[in-house]
Amino acid sequence: MWSQRQVMSHALQRRHTLESMLRGERAFSSTTACDAEPLLVRAALHHGEPSAVACPVCDSEHMMNLNYTFGDQLGQYSGRHKSTAELEEMQNEIGEFTVRVVEVCPDCRWNHLITTYVLGDGKKRRPPRRQKTVEDIYG
């Protein structure tokens, strides 16, 4: 992606968690590290993109990556997951937003933040007009 900047890898935190699990530290047991919420696992199954690496815990090939977008210029659409193709389009339409990539294993429920970066063309824009949602209409 042409506008990708401020890339931060969380590989050291991931490695620390995995090494602590292997050493058997109580704070990082497999039950506490593999604690993905059901909604995160469901999002990974239906909207995730296959990862190039296998799960570090259960060695499953079903590892998925989810891209979550955050930013003031996204308005009410902040906090939603997007595909890589959607991110390619958004970087031309939105001034600046943050992408957080989370890896999720649906088999053992391992999840970890792997990368954070900023996208956008850098032009300041107002957030989109707030659309009424079902909660607004029906309470």
Summary of the model, kept short:
The chain is of the alpha+beta class. The protein has helices spanning 11-23, 30-33, 38-47, 84-93, 134-138, and strands at residues 5-9, 49-50, 64-70, 80-82, 97-104, 111-119. The protein contains five helices and six strands.
Topology (SSEs and partners):
Elements: E1 5-9, H1 11-23, H2 30-33, H3 38-47, E2 49-50, E3 64-70, E4 80-82, H4 84-93, E5 97-104, E6 111-119, H5 134-138
Antiparallel strand pairs: 1-6, 2-3, 3-4, 3-5, 5-6
Describe the protein.
The protein is of the alpha+beta class and 139 residues long. The protein has one domain. 30% of the residues lie in helices and 24% in strands. It has helices at 11-23, 30-33, 38-47, 84-93, 134-138; strands at residues 5-9, 49-50, 64-70, 80-82, 97-104, 111-119. Strands 1, 2, 3, 4, 5 and 6 form a six-stranded antiparallel sheet that branches. A hairpin with a 6-residue loop joins strand 5 (97-104) and strand 6.
Per DSSP, the total helix count is 5
Secondary structural class: alpha+beta
Instruction: Indicate how many domains the architecture comprises.
Output: 1
Cα shape: globular
Give a count of the beta strands, DSSP E runs of length 2 or more.
6
N to C succession of SSEs: EHHHEEEHEEH
Helix content: 25-40%
Summary keywords:
139 residues, six-stranded antiparallel β-sheet, globular
